[in-house]
Automatic annotation (TrEMBL):
Keywords: Membrane, Transmembrane, Transmembrane helix. Pfam families: DUF1191. It comes from Populus trichocarpa. This is Uncharacterized protein. The chain crosses the membrane at residues 181-208. It comes from the Eukaryota.
């Protein structure tokens, strides 16, 4: 079951969904997580017993961060950035103990369907290309498998781009303002840092939700037990008590012989 994770108001526009799996069942049966289709035989490294697969949609408000901090010269984003990530997860896992799990395709690649992405409708007569945003700051451009459908070999962040018209030659003022290499390297890591930060926020939110659910189940269990066996206060201690039942006296009519 896909669970929608509600982020704080300052992350307005970002859509995050999560699905919990067992490692073995995900490998045997695959899964569909929103736009991402994981085929049978997907490999998880390391293979934690329980994990949560996370789907991110950065929408129009946050996707430009990737465009601004990766080298997309000559291309223009025409879809939101979609992310696929995984973390170990369990009722006994603390936020500090969580770690990222790698998702790697099996015989068939992971497919990403952008057909329902809002901005792709503005593309007319142009076939979009698939963009993969790597952790090292590189952007890999590929031809899509079919219209609006990209393929991937692993987890990460993906989007659709089209070739943009050539820019006019830079003026001397623009050349002087050219960003140095170290700033480009630092900037390219912003997208990765954002992804890590969102993962942390997501895991905290899911951890709180799971703990809240466990607490509610415990309260329901206690309420059921208290209903079955009445509890009363003895001093400052709660103690189970049985309901007092008084036997109704019966008058016997008869003669007692001496």
């Amino acid at each position: 079951m896909v669970h929608t994770v509600h982020l704080p108001a300052n992350f307005s526009g970002i859509k995050v969904d999560a699905v919990r799996f067992r490692c073995g069942s995900l490998r045997r049966y695959g899964a569909q997580v929103k736009e991402f289709h994981l085929g049978i035989g997907v490999t998880l490294q390391p293979c934690a017993e329980r994990l949560v697969v996370i789907r991110q949609n950065l929408d129009l408000n946050w996707s430009p961060i990737y465009y601004a901090n990766y080298d997309l010269s000559g291309y223009q984003l025409v879809s939101p950035i979609l992310g696929l990530l995984a973390y170990n997860f369990g009722s006994d896992v603390n936020v500090s103990d969580s770690f990222e799990i790698g998702i790697h395709a099996g015989e068939k690649p992971i497919t990403i369907d952008f057909s329902n992405a809002s901005t792709t409708a503005n593309v007319s007569g142009v076939r979009p290309l698939c963009a993969s945003f790597e952790n090292d700051g590189r952007v890999i451009i590929k031809v899509p498998e079919s219209l609006f459908v990209c393929v991937a070999k692993r987890h990460g962040h993906y989007g659709l781009v089209i070739k943009s018209p050539p820019a006019p030659p830079p003026s001397m003022q623009m050349i002087k303002r050219k960003i140095s290499l170290w700033k480009v390297v630092v900037g390219s890591s912003v997208g990765t840092a954002l992804g890590v930060f969102l993962l942390g926020m997501l895991f905290v939110a899911m951890f709180v939700q799971v703990k809240k659910k466990a607490r509610m189940e415990e309260m329901e269990r206690r309420a059921y037990e208290e209903e079955a066996l009445q509890v009363s206060m003895v001093g400052h201690v709660r103690a189970p008590t049985a309901t007092v039942t008084r036997t109704t006296p019966i008058i016997e009519h008869g003669i007692i012989s001496e």
